[in-house]
Amino acid sequence: MAQTTNAISFAGAKVEVSTDGTTWTDISGFATAVELGGGERQTGTAFTFDGDTAIIRGGKREPLEVTVRVVYTEGASDPAETVRAAYENGTDLYIRWSPKGGASGDALFTTDAAVVTTPPYPAGEAGSGDPVVIEFTALTPKVTRSTIV
Fold first, then answer.
1. What ranges do the domains of the chain cover?
2. Could you please report the per-residue DSSP string of 66-103?
């Protein structure tokens, strides 16, 4: 098979958050990274007297951890404040992202209702001139892929 010429850079991704799964806020101008962890499918194995290899079957999927880094700012509706409120109140947060940028026909990955599990508070070093960045992790049962219409 020939090498692809359709590779996508994440540099132009679109990232959004929502507190209700309906009204979305574009945080692409604040977001610096989206990372995934967890989600492994449980498996089971059994051996029989007649075979030399295991019988393997898939079970349930573990929850996914979606980690997002955003530039910290202090506006009342900025992403840092939205995430902090969801963390402190234990309320749902939804996250979605489009690696290609969010145009019609692009793939869109959307979490189910998620719980922010890490404290999204700013921290840093005195000698650094880097912008302050916070990181938060949200635990969700699954991520659904769709196509933007």
1. 10-39+46-147
2. EEEEEE----TTSHHHHHHHHHHHT-EEEEEEETT-S-
Longest dimension (CA), the chain: 67
Residue in this structure with the two tokens 């995934």, named with its chain if needed: 36
What is the distance of C-alpha 114 from the center of its chain? 10
- For residue 84, the tally of other CB atoms under 10 A from its CB is 18
Tokens 């219409």: give the residue.
149
pTM equals: 0.92
Give pLDDT tens digits for 69-93: 999 999 999 999 999 999 999 999 9
Residue given tokens 């290609």 in the structure block: 100
| Residues facing residue 15 across a β-bridge | 97
Is residue 36 a contact partner of residue 64, using CB atoms and an 8 Å limit? yes
Backbone torsion region of residue 39, taken as left when φ is above 0, otherwise alpha when ψ lies between -120 and 50, otherwise beta: left
- Per-residue pLDDT of 110-133, as tens digits, reads 999 999 999 999 999 999 999 999
Is 10-39+46-147 a domain of CATH 2.60.40?
Answer: no
